[in-house]
Structure formats: C-alpha cells, structure tokens
Write a structure and sequence with these properties.
Shape: globular
Number of helices: 5
Order of helices and strands: EEEEHEEEEHEEHEHEHE
CATH class: Alpha Beta
Distance between the termini: 31 Å
Mean pLDDT: 91
Largest sheet: 11 strands, mixed
Strand content: 15-25%
Radius of gyration: 18 Å
Helix content: 10-25%
Number of strands: 13
CATH architecture: 3-Layer(aba) Sandwich
CATH superfamily: Nucleoside phosphorylase domain
Low-confidence stretches: none
CATH topology: Rossmann fold
Structural class: alpha/beta
Length: 269
Amino acid sequence: MTEQVAEIGIFGGSGFYSFLDDVRELIVETPYGPPSESISVGKLGGRKVAFLPRHGSKHQHPPHNLNYRANIYAMKELGVTQIIGPCASGSLQVDVKPGNFVLCDQFIDRTRGRDDTFYNGPISTHISTAEPYCAEMRAIAARVGENLGLDIHKTGTVVVVQGPRFSTKAESRWFSSHGWEVINMTQYPECVLARELEICYLNISLITDWDVGLEDHPAIKAVTLDEVVKTFNDNNAKLRDFLFKLIPELPTSRNCACSKALDGARFTV
C-alpha cells in the first residue's frame, strides 16, 4: 500500500475499535497467511490507528498457535511505525500486584517452534535485541501512566511461556527466583518481529493475578477466578483510558534504535 493508512497499531482484546472515530474494516493479505482478524482502522486524538484483536474476535487463536508474522506484517503494510501491545499477564513478584501495569523492557523466551523471523535467507540478517522494546515509547507511557495515577512499573522482565498450559509451581518459583516480574504467552516473538521490520513496540502488561509459584507466600491470599475476572475487567477500563491519553502523546517522528534496527544487521558478500 502506498498510502499510510495508520501510524499506530494496537494488539489487544476485541471491542477497543468501538472507541475509534470513522472506523472501517480492512482485510490485509500477507505472504505469511491471514492475520488473526480483519483490521479496524480509524482515528483517535487526531492520530491514525489500526486495531487488531490478537486472538481474533472470538478468541479463537490460542497463544501457541498465533500467526505472529502475519499480524506484524499486516501492520507494516498499513504503514504502522509504532505498535502498542497490551497483554493480560501474571505476576512473579509479591510487589507486582493484581491491578498493576508493567512496562516491560526485557523478555525471557521459553517458547518453542514458533515462526519467529522474517529473515530465513538468502541474506543473513541478525538484528540486535539487547533492548527489545522501544525506550522512547516506554518513557512516554510511564509519564502518562503516572499522571493518570496508575500503579505502574516503569520496567520489568516478562517470561514468555509456550502455552496453552500454565506453569507448574516449580517452573513459576524458578522464574521468580531470578527476579523476573511478569509471565505471559504472547510477547515472543511479537516484539522481535516488529523490531525486524523497524517498527517501535511498547508492551503494557496488565497484571490479573499472582502466578502459581507465589500461592504459598504469607503475604498473598489465594486468588479466585471471580477476582481474576474482576481485575481483568477493571484493568481493561483503565487500559482504555491509558491508551486514549497515550496515543496523542506518541512522537510523529522517530530517532530511536528501533527505526534503525536493520543498519549493520545484514551480511553481504
């Protein structure tokens, strides 16, 4: 597409698009197959926004089976240069509480078998993922979140597990023992694929519960399903307000490392 249909992309649960202005639905074809759903494009705060429900409108695509490459490529085709990737997550630390938000700056990949690169040859391409998330977007999000009075952690490491099962207590305790804060099933390879296409990526982890390895901690009471659902719904309302304030604040030009991720990354003879 020659026209920049959207500047900012959002992956998230279905329904967010209902708050955009002048919404239209687009079906985007990619070399990697279809994305999770048609993409809703519209305007918010004067910015062109593309919204894609990561798991599909009926949550029909489980985390281990998502077509991550198609989702990211479709955003690139629309002209998106910045992606916001909210995700419901568990906490691995006592001080990261249900209802908190974590702006992750690092990840640990514990997945397997996922298609996690656009570059399978013939030119070898090795991007740096030392800092996998956009520092510029994260700094802006931290400021906006604090101004809204959100309980927000400015940095954090997310452990990405394969799914669809949840962790055992032993696995969860192992993750916690390293000081990692968040556990989730979708951050890898989503953020890496965005970097491969020089798209900025911001993670916003919505903490819905403490992970199973913390259940026996004296400071934590057992979490019920009703509480998880309530926290998730409350967080979604906060997330919506957060995004409405954040999107107009994002820069219209970029000087971050993400925009130059392919510089020096390719080996040519």
